[in-house]
Amino acid sequence: xxxxxxxxxxxxxxxxxxxxxxxxxSGFEFTTEKTDAVIAPTDxxxxxxxxxxxxxxxxxxxxxxxxxxxxxxxxxKIMTAIVALENSPIDSIVTMPGEAVGVEGxxxxxxxxxxxxxxxxxxxxxxxxxxxxxxxxxIHTAGSKEAFVRLMNDKAKxxxxxxxxxxxxxxxxxxxxxxxxxxMARLFSYAIDNKVFLEITSxxxxxxxxxxxxxxxxxxxxxLLWQLDGCIGGKTGYTKTAGRCLVSGTLRDxxxxxxxxxxxxxxxxxxxxxxxxxxxxYENRIVAKTGExxxxxxxxxxxxSSVKVSNDKEFSVCVKKSSAPITHTVELFRFYYPPVxxxxxxxxxxxxxxxxxxxxxxxxxxxxxxxxxxxxxxxRIFGKR
Length: 385
Fold this sequence. Notes:
The protein has 2 domains: 47-282, DD-peptidase/beta-lactamase superfamily (Beta-lactamase, 3-Layer(aba) Sandwich), CATH 3.40.710; 289-365, D-Ala-D-Ala carboxypeptidase, C-terminal domain (Peptidoglycan synthesis regulatory factor (PBP3), Domain 2, Sandwich), CATH 2.60.410.10. The strands form 5 sheets. A 5-stranded antiparallel beta sheet has the order 2-1-9-8-7, with helices on both faces. It has a 5-stranded antiparallel beta sheet with strand order 11-12-16-15-14, with no helix packed on it. The chain has a two-stranded antiparallel ribbon with strand order 3-4. The longest helix has 26 residues, at 2-27. By secondary structure, the chain is an alpha+beta fold. Helices cover 30% and strands 28% of the residues. The chain has 10 helices and 16 strands. The N and C termini lie far apart (133 Å).
């Protein structure tokens, strides 16, 4: 009886086990979270957040905690610089206000009443990471530090930096002063489109003449300008709260790579490693040489019966190596009524990869064609004499 009872229990357990296995096999899906990053060399990359961004293709090549809100220390000054450049003339004179003297942290020790151009102040801000210059720039640009911070947050909103909020122009610790690695990459990408900002951030040093004699020297703290091929600048940052923070940008063969690390002890090597990795993945593919797309187009009623149309510029597209070919579509009318003017746009060639738009080139008239003068009544009847 006991033996029979035990057999029934074992059979029941077996049935339950089979049902459980069946349920696991058919009723549950085990999925891996989808990431925006391709496989990258991640060994020895220790950071609270890190991204590598391809500006040309608007792709995050590598991302770890890219959306995480973190303190970003003096990388804040990228926003300080671009807001100042967009709201005040670079040759305007900044008078050092007393409240900006002796601000905690890095400084160039400006004295109350000292006068420098905004451009020179921006060099102090970006190269020496001067907190006193940051406050002076803010007050000069907006009238007060608080008003300037509002401009910074307005700009962040305009750029879609949804994980960013500023409370000061220098990056000293504050509860609601934060950003993300992704936001900082997009901010720097935007900033380097400003020619003056790019000149400042890429400068290894800068000197300002003193009133008496000699110079005040500013030296860039970004050692990647010396160590990383094609480095065009960036911004360093450090506080005990934020740890070591770094934004760097590199340009090679027309391709921009931007790397951001927040709270990374070995930031210089991480940036070099990831940037080199990024350039192994992409190439600038020439899809239109100058004059490659050339057409004869009819000009009815013109002094000449046709006109040549072509692209007067070379065009290349940044794509992943060994990726699909680039296709093109020509948009051009079969004829144009005169007059047509040399250099005027006649049409365009649109380029796509896998059906996705990647760019276009203009087709322009190579020469001008005027209207054929209308013959008089007698000439139409009797012809030329």
